Amino acid sequence: MNEKKILVIEDEESINTLLQFNLEQAGFEVVTAMDGVTGLKLAKEENPDLIVLDLMLPEMDGLDVCKNLRQSQQLIPILMLTAKDDEFDKVLGLELGADDYMTKPFSPREVVARVKAILRRSQYNASANQTPSDLEAMVVGDLKVYPENYEAFFKGEPLDLTPKEFELLVYLVKNKGRVMSREQLLNAIWDYDFVGDTRIVDVHISHLREKIEQNTRKPIYIKTIRGLGYKLDGPQ
């Protein structure tokens, strides 16, 4: 975790300062912004390892910042903060590409713990001279995944996946043919208790299906097992 850079985009000065202090105490380098436009600019210039992003921001709100980053192929992990205890806002943030969310008020220690969990799950060790052909691939039908190189291909084309989408895909492929409950996937991928909020799993499954299924309503690879969870299988 040493020398990891965190960008905090939060317009409430007291919260911004509190997050900066606690993250720096935890050993992170911290860059801050007080509005969405500045935050977006810093996200592209500073190349942070993770962004803590408030939903309600002046100039440009957090949803637009997140959407802009994902549309420009910026796959930096995003922890979204929201004062609204509203399922719509949480789900919309996840659908736009946020990796996680927290509802205010929150404990600064919990934010630090979430940041560490996201970074831990996002890290991968790939040598600069490694190519997909040098590594062992996990293959299911037209899907080819290289966990060590953090790459996935479908029908020979690279998949544009967020960190959490990639981790979820790897886990499903490793457990090919096994039915995984939403709770199992939460524990395995998100690394902490979501207090039964399994909607985050459904959103990420939906994202993966959009990228590897020809017909998302009749999936061939990621199948819903009614009342149980999800199973990844290959085409018959």
Record the SSE blueprint.
Layout: E1 5-9, H1 13-25, E2 29-33, H2 36-46, E3 50-54, H3 62-71, E4 78-82, H4 87-95, E5 100-103, H5 108-122, E6 138-140, E7 143-146, E8 151-154, E9 157-158, H6 163-174, H7 182-190, H8 199-212, E10 222-225, E11 229-232
Parallel strand pairs: 1-2, 1-3, 3-4, 4-5
Antiparallel strand pairs: 6-7, 7-8, 8-9, 10-11
Structure description:
The structure is a single chain. About 5% of the residues have low confidence. The protein contains eight helices and eleven strands. It is α/β, with parallel strands linked by helices. Helix content is 39%, strand content 19%.
Short description:
39% of the residues lie in helices and 19% in strands.
Structural descriptors:
4-stranded antiparallel β-sheet, 2 domains, single chain, Arc Repressor Mutant, subunit A, Rossmann fold, alpha/beta, 236 residues
Going across the major beta sheet, what is the strand order? 2-1-3-4-5
Q: Kindly state the mean pLDDT as a whole number?
A: 85
CATH class of the largest domain: Alpha Beta
Q: What Rg, in angstroms, do the CA atoms define?
A: 18 Å
Low-confidence stretches: 124-134
Number of strands: 11
| CATH homology-level superfamily of the largest domain | Response regulator
Q: Share of helix among residues?
A: 25-40%
The helix/strand series, from N terminus to C terminus, equals: EHEHEHEHEHEEEEHHHEE
The domain tally reads 2
The largest β sheet comes out as: 5 strands, parallel
Strand content: 15-25%
Shape: elongated
Q: What structural class do helix, strand and pairing data support?
A: alpha/beta
Number of helical runs?
A: 8
CATH topology of the largest domain: Rossmann fold
